Amino acid sequence: MVILFLILMVVLSVLIGFFILVQNPKGGGLAGNIAGFSTQFMGVKQTTDVLEKGTWIVAVLIAVLSIVSPVFIAGKSSGGREPNLRPNSSTTAPLTPTPTLPQPAPAPSK
């Protein structure tokens, strides 16, 4: 199950990286003019819509997979319980105070 989630996350990460890198922030990208033709050449006008929708869909899938995956991964491996991260007081030795150095005796006054 862990390998499945890992593969899905890697594939979705590469896919969202592709969608983001192909887009041009100023509206160009693949939807820009192709060799001087109009933007309606072979349906390229809709490319920005497809890329934007694809980016949102993949982002939502990554978010859902990130939220849902610990439930499946932790549920199988540790029984759904969190490990006790605090040390047991019975296994640790009690702290001993640091010994103090003896103070020199005051000099006798005359």
Q: What is the makeup of the main sheet?
A: none
Please tally the helical runs, counting DSSP H or I stretches of 4 or more residues.
2
The rough form would be described as: elongated
SSE pattern: HH
Features:
single chain; 110 residues; mainly alpha; 47% helix
Chart the SSEs and their pairings.
Layout: H1 2-22, H2 47-77
Helix pairs in contact: 1-2
Structure, described:
- Helix 1 runs antiparallel to helix 2.
- This protein has helices spanning 2-22, 47-77.
- The protein starts with a helix and ends in a 33-residue tail after the last helix.
- The chain has a domain at 1-15 and 43-76.
- It contains 2 helices and no strands.
- It is 47% helix and 0% strand.
- It is an all-alpha fold and 110 residues long.
Quick summary:
The chain has two helices and no strands.
